[in-house]
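Internal QA ticket QA-208
Title: Verify multi-chain structure generation after dependency bump
Assignee: T.L.

Test input:
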Amino acid sequence: MCEEGYAAVTSRRLGAEAGVNPQLIHYYFQSMDNLFLELWRRHTDRSLVLLSQAFISQSPLRTLWENSITARGASLAAELMALARHRKVLRAEIARTVESIRRMQTSALAGIMDEYGLTKSLGRPEILTVLITGMTRILVVEDELGISLGHADTRALIETWIDRLEPKARSGSGGPEKPKD
Amino acid sequence: MCEEGYAAVTSRRLGAEAGVNPQLIHYYFQSMDNLFLELWRRHTDRSLVLLSQAFISQSPLRTLWENSITARGASLAAELMALARHRKVLRAEIARTVESIRRMQTSALAGIMDEYGLTKSLGRPEILTVLITGMTRILVVEDELGISLGHADTRALIETWIDRLEPKARSGSGGPEKPKD
DNA sequence: GTCTATATAATGATAGAC
DNA sequence: GTCTATCATTATATAGAC
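Actual output:
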């Protein structure tokens, strides 16, 4: 799906890739609609795990950014949202869960923004959520299409901004020091 | 394409919508690959017109933002880029032209950023291009899926930011004044 | 240029043997 | 659960009449 787009995901193709008959796909998932729904649910489950991991880490903003920009999650989300335009059942479920997850991320970010003194310049915390989601999505999706103009600079700016808010612990001359936890 | 996704765009459907036989689509466009290529070219042509219009206006940043967020262009671009994952011929053309247009937009923005004193805070002008493209894309695409959480606040922040850089000419008590040009 | 007719391939899905 | 067989539908595309 991430490599060739949702249109390449067919029961026959999935069966071949899994080394089984395509009919087994229907045995387990009934319809393709349902298969894509299950895929979306698996994706959101993983997103929630990554989200909660980020907010118990010592650098929540950096972890959140690195998770979003590294994982194939942004790519998969983009593809499933494109597919949702074509499949009504996906559309409702996606709209619902995106808003739900965004609410959680927002309330988690609210505390961070207060702590970092960002509330004055950025305003409401949902803005930061939209900003992070939007920027990671365009960087990841364009990257996969072979578009890279401006990417390195944009990432550098954002990472500099994060570094200022969440300075990395500097290691001594004896090499990197692992913090006790 | 914008309403139901690229998978809904078939020669049969196009023929029906145009009130002609689907075979005529092949008469004019030969293959579907070529049809999508022509669509992409029409899209980029219009993008270039809007871009040049923005930069001769008195509020280039505002015009650029409003063009991007209003037109169905962002939606079409997103759909065609999703389709490009599935169609190799599109992929190369899209990667090439996106970078080309981005180069033009960047060099146009470079002058604006200097004038507005943004270079110090934002850095290189391509960053602003990526920022505008990314934010308009997520706002437009999510909007069409029925996702709106955080959108109003994000738009408000960006528009406030533009208003500060490009203050609107305040009209007198006699009503709006049209500037002579 | 627009139509009818048709070739060919791929899709989602079901029924039933084992 | 996994297979074979099969169906109805849809897709792109071409050939040829008018």
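Spot checks passed. Chain A is about 70% helix and 0% strand.
Status: verified.
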